Each structure stands twice: as structure tokens, then as C-alpha cells.
Amino acid sequence: MSGNRYGHGPGMDSDRRLRVLIVQEAMGGCGRHVADLVTGLDPSRFAVTVLYGTSRMDAYYRSRMPELRRHARMIPCDDLRRNIDPRHDLSALAAAVRTIRHVRPDIVHCHSTKGGVIGRAAAWLCRVPVVLYTPHAYAFQSPQVRRWKRRLYTAAELVMARAATTCTFNVSEGERDIALARHLAAPDRLRVIVNGLADVPMPSRRQARQRAGLPQDVPIVGVVARLVDQKDPMTAARIARLLIARDPRVHVAFVGSGPLEGDVRGFCTACGIDANVHFLGDRSDADTLVAAFDVSLLCSLYEGLPYSLIESIRAGVPVAASDVTGSEEVVCEGRNGLLFPVGDEIAGAAAVERLLADPLPRERVRERFLTRFRVEDMLENIAAQYVARAGVAGRNAA
């Protein structure tokens, strides 16, 4: 490895640990992924620093911050924000360059679209030899993004993928297929490493409902999602209206918050179903609170690989989900849930009703989690890539 790459001498700790700099803006599933990566990497092999955006921090990430600080150097960056803003973006880029020059990482691993653009641009400017990227769903996948923005996002991904990315880690086969269809990179520069979760003890349904303040002896449908456009919570609210109209015993619980919460609340009040709909807000225990539900519902317009569905099947709770990239890799029809067309509340309500009427066995629902989505596999694959990529870069520099 070049000793003067950042003008500071060698880029490796004296104990020979690989220095990894993670750059992230998004939270939600991205934040969960980064948190599990930081706390799961072997500290005897990797010295980790995280440059993270603060504008969209959620309850889950905040709850894990003390643990994250024990495992990594955590550097907040107020300018690392989702929206395009030249002033903040340039300040975030400058912060990333300063961090790279101080940390002298062997690897920069960027997460989410904005983190990917800022982090990869800074790594390119500083000539970091290994630059990795995990999109967690490409921004141009959103059907609600205006055409000019979709073209801008696609162009940015093309430039960064070809000029400043050693390898992209896609979180699902579908996400990789999208990258290939857009010619973002050659197949050998795309690798699928799916999200994973630890198999932790779950509360009983009664315990979880008591903890959340939910009624005990009624069917409950849970929606664990940020209340933002991507997750399409208004379709979930319309499904709730249909379900409750057909069976007044049904309750629906929204776990999460966001800019569309007022719209969803207003809709439920106007429809007269607000007594059966519960808004639990951001919960640091959302990943185990899912045990309270009979069915989990997710109406996303697009995804990378949604953690909320993995959390549901881990708990043995069947899912009804919109048929989008990522979700269709978690849901095995008839074994752990059902899929329905995006935005189709009638089909969505029918899927939920079928799962309520004919519950799937808990162990059958869990099978897909146990065979595909274990955090140990995710960590092993990423760590192996870090070591292999850094080794190749070291040999090339020599």
C-alpha cells in the first residue's frame, strides 16, 4: 500500500487491522444494516469509523448509539442530507475528505444514494484504493421521482459506479438486476450480499401487545414502516378501512413516523376507523414488537430488501406485501405470506384476510429466515470481501 496516499505515512494500524470508513446518510433499513455491521465486525481485524448524517436519525439508531460508540469512531455530519442542496452537499464532501485524510482508511464503504455520491466522490479525490457501495435501493427506482431527477440520479450512479467504485454490494438479486439493466457496472463488479438478522428471543404475542398497549383478543395487522412516500402508507390505510368494514374486530397498528402521518391519521378519522387504528410512533423495539401481530403489512412502492419483512418472518408472523424488488425475495407465496400488486388495496386486503382466516404455522414462516437471512452470513460475506479487496489493492500498490 502506498505510504503517502494521504500524505501521512502508511494506511494501516500498527496492529495490522484494516481501517474501514463507513459513510451513510439514510436510516431505516440502511441504519439497521450499518449498525449490525459496525457491532458485528471482528474488532481484532477491523478498525471502523462511521461518518453519518444526523437529519434523519430514527429511534432505533439512537438507541444503538452507545453500543456503536463502543465499536467504532462515530462522526456526525449535519450537512450529509437526503435532499439535493449544493451548499450542504459541498460541506458534506469537505467533511468526508477531511475524515479520509485523518483516518487514512484502507476501505471506504458507502451506504445509500447520498452517502454513496458524497463518500465515493471524496474517496476518489483522496485516491482510496478500495471503494465499496451498498445502495439499499437506488433512488431512481422510485416511481414518484420526477423524470429529470430520475435521469440525474441514474447519471450520478453511472459516473460513480464506473469511476469511483471497486464493487457494489446489492442487498437483493432484484437490485442487482436493476443495476445490470441500467448498465451501471459489469457483472463482476456487482455482488449480492443480502441483509441478515440475529435470531433473538421473541416476546409472546400477549407480552408484545401489553408492551405496546394494544388490545389482546382481536386480530391485529401491523405496518412497520416509516410514514413516507416510498412505503405508501395511504394504501395501507385504505386496506385498513376495507378490513375493518368487513370485520369490526380487526385492529391495525402503524409503527413508525414520518411526514405522511398527518394524512394517514386524517384519513382514518374521516373514515370513522380511528378507534381501531393505533399509531405507535418510532419504537426502538420495533423489531421484536412485531410479535404482537397476526399479519404484517407492507405496501412499498419500491425496495432494496426490507428489514421489516425479515423481522416479521423471524418472529413467525406471516406477511402481506406489495410485489416489488426485494420483498418478493423474502416472501415465499403460501409459505410465509402473500404478495399483491403495488397500490392495489383490494388485492392487499384480500391477502391480509386470507392470512387471518388461515394462519400459517410459525415454524414454516420462519424457514426462509433461517436459510437465507442470518446476520452471521451477512457479516462473514462482507468481512471476506473487505479482506480480499484490500489484499488485491495492497498487491497492486506494491
UniProtKB/TrEMBL annotation:
Pfam families: Glyco_trans_4_4 (PF13579), Glycos_transf_1 (PF00534). Residues 28-196 form the Glycosyltransferase subfamily 4-like N-terminal domain. GO terms for molecular function: glycosyltransferase activity. The keyword Chaperone does not apply. Keywords: Glycosyltransferase, Transferase. Residues 205-367 form the Glycosyl transferase family domain. This is Exopolysaccharide biosynthesis protein. It comes from Bifidobacterium ramosum.
